Amino acid sequence: MKQTHQFGGITVNVLLIIMLVVIGVLIYILAGGPMPKFGQTHGVVSPSANDNEIAPTFVPSPGEFSDGLINPDFSQSYQLDEFGSGLAQRDIFDIDINEDGIRDRITRNRNENGTAHFYDEYKIELNIDGEFVDITPDGFRTTEGAECALTKIKFIFQPDFRVIKISRPWQDSWETPTMATRTIYAFNENNILAPVSSQQLKTVCDVSDLF
Questions:
Q1: Where are the transmembrane segments (predicted)?
Q2: Do the beta carbons of residue 57 and residue 73 sit within 8 Å?
């Protein structure tokens, strides 16, 4: 009889220990957030195909070309048509570009055409008295393909705002190297974003290599 009581006491103690461990695990999970699902890694965000969801921010790898625009204030992906063409993504950046203390706006639209070729189109707007005024120079869009890019654009914000555009003409095929030209845009005395210099660089296939 005494042994039965001892065995029962041990069983109760074991059950209490198990309950305490389970409670501790539950407290840990609630404090540290949900445990990752199978196949999911912390810190990795997968793109969403839904139109109304925010697209992940693109962060270039070291050595990879960047247009200088990161961490958009608004980002949305869109459904392409049955041919895989159309507006793929829109990113909007609220940035003070003319140093007047008011946030202006740069919009980047990624456009696909159902092939390996695509382009990014940029729109630059100054916030003047609460109204956004388009000051985008002509031809502010990239020309890109699977083999190489013919036109790329990079935004520089320090020490002063300027935009570098490097482009080359198409000839024979996408892989045919041609002479690339670098054009730098900056604000002139009339607060207009205009070319301030232009220089031929070298003959290349991918102009990304010249940034």
A1: 12-31
A2: no
